[in-house]
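User: I'm new to structure prediction. If I give you an amino acid sequence, what do you actually give back? Let's try with this one:
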Amino acid sequence: MTTDTNPTPPEASDPEHDGTVVPFPPRPDGPDAAPEPGTTSDTSFEVTLDDEPAGRAGPVDAGEGIVLPDPDGESYPVIPEHLRSLAGIAEALGRHGRRLGHRAGFHGIRAPRYLLLGLVYAVAGVFRLTGRQLAWWWVSEQDYLRSHAVAAADSREWMRLHREVRDTRRTRGIILAGEAFALLLGTVALAKIAPWWGWLAAAAVVVPALARAGRPEDRPIISPAMTVPRFRVLNADVVLRAYYAAGLGHPDKPGQQVEFESAMTRDGDGSRVRVVLPYGTGFDKVVKAKDDLAAGLDVAPSQVYLTRDKSSHRRHALWVADRDPLAVPAGKTPLLDLKRRSIWQPAPFGLDERGRKVTLGLLWISILVGAQPRKGKTFSGRLLALFAALDPSVRLSVVDGKNSPDWNAFRKIAYHFIHGIVPSRDGDPVAQLISALTEIKAHIIATNEFLATLPFTECPRGKLTEELCAKYPKRLFVWVLVMEEFQNYFELPDQKVNAVIADLLAFIMAVGPSSGVIIVSLSQKPSGIGAGDVQRLFNRYRDNHTVRFALRCGSRVVSDAILGGDAYSEGFDASSLPVGEEFLGVGYLYGAADHTPTVRCYLADAEDTDAIVTAARVLRERAGTLAGFAAGQDTADPGRDVLADVLAVFGTDTGLHWQVLADRLAEQFPARWADATADAISAQVRALEVPGADVRYPSTRAGKTRAGCRRADVETAAQRP
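Assistant: Good question. You get back a string of structure tokens that encode the predicted 3D arrangement of the chain. For your 721 residues, that looks like this:
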């Protein structure tokens, strides 16, 4: 039952303005008088603040792009949204088909047991029905009355009852004999006339009826194939009690009552109502009191969802799920169909709290994924990389800062595959990263320069399009850069190397999206990284991600670092997400749209990942786009040997400044080092175990002593195996 605390007042028609006038309820006498029950004490619209406008009211032209509110309210769709497309209809039919198929299989395998129980209970039903018929014929219910007459020594009453029961037994005996004769006649007719299938048809009708009569009340023959959903039924009284228990108002204090802007309605698998808080109580207080509100509603906090009203800070929508929606897994990823995908289409990511599909468009954005260890961070980020992998036109660079086996399958398709921060038999990952980021930076610059040369008719928006990528596949393509535990590359022992990596990532983050470079960054430590300029660049890189996905975090501070400072005031705190194995892969997707869903990510385990990546390699081989690391090419230092090039420009000098080295490399090898800077050269040379030194250049007395390297140290490093 729903209680409407704001009944609609009577309406009056205004023929002059052709509208509806809603009169305010009369105000009681006295400035301190309390309002009548069922009325509002809001008088802010009762006093005329401005003069009446001159002239006659007329329609207002909203203009293009402006939508006025509908005075008749929002209409429910005639056809539900999920049934407006063939894909939606197919999904609904598939869902019901899977349910019916499960029930058929469940009961089919138990059919012999059902048959045996039915026969046993049918035999018992024969005896039970026979006993009931005999008791009915004997009028056994009158035994108590006759016994009572005997005990009262009332012979007249006993004789009257005896005559009645004798007459009743005679009548019922005749009826019972007729029933027995009819049953015998039917049995003989079946035996003489009916074929074998007639016996089966009769048994199909009679045996279930006898079995139902003979089975115990607590022993059903057919067990249910699915559990019956049970949920908390909400009404206005329950919601009001919860809000008052959470300290969000008081039922007896004037002006402190919680009111409703709409009736309590069913919305999907839950109940929805629009709540109006007392004056002075804002949405922030509701967010802080969410746990207390859930306790007042007698549900889990993960079943309570609050949505801010953009028009008022004291109004919001409350949606309470029937059962915890986050504990239900989203299931396997749809990518397991191994079909080709397009990066220009949204990627399937998971299901929201209401079971609706959540997709994420990857173009023109950068994504930050953060969480505590083992909460599903890598798996959720890997879903996006797998989607990109199934588009053979996408170039994929995978940088795994934690050097885990989670990304090893991407060796089959990755253009760059860099793992760890410690040199190994695969080379120095830090130097490889600097080289890869430098190549991506050069690609961004070249792409923007090429787009600038195209005519306006071909490139009207000045950025990448699907048509341009199809027309110029060698020069224009989408590049996805995955950075797993990227904070490790901001905490290297060499601060100069940290600065170079930070500067390259900051450039790619700022300029890359318009050139088709997508960054997927994953981190379990999104704050407190580096110092000085490195810390500034790290924060800049972290904060410039346009889309954030936060799984379970250890504290609100970490949640704010991932989602941003505004998320908490809107009711999103990743540290409050539930804990448990059933909640792995659950997080807030912030910034992708106006709505911030709580997403249950699809699952792609190691076996699934390998199958998808194997299919992606086949697609790339067919399209002729397999290149880089996956094709056996050396992408660690593409097209250049750092130490050999440095030695080539040394000449007769024994030591050179970093800036001099950068200038000579750019002049002598412009194809490979045109964008080289002093810091970049320093980082790459030092990463190859060449110690930095203070050197004088020129070596004469006029030379200046600055940071650089010595020729002998470079030769020693070049001779190492």
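You can read the tokens as a compact description of the fold. Here is one thing that stands out. The first strand starts at residue 12 and ends at 14.
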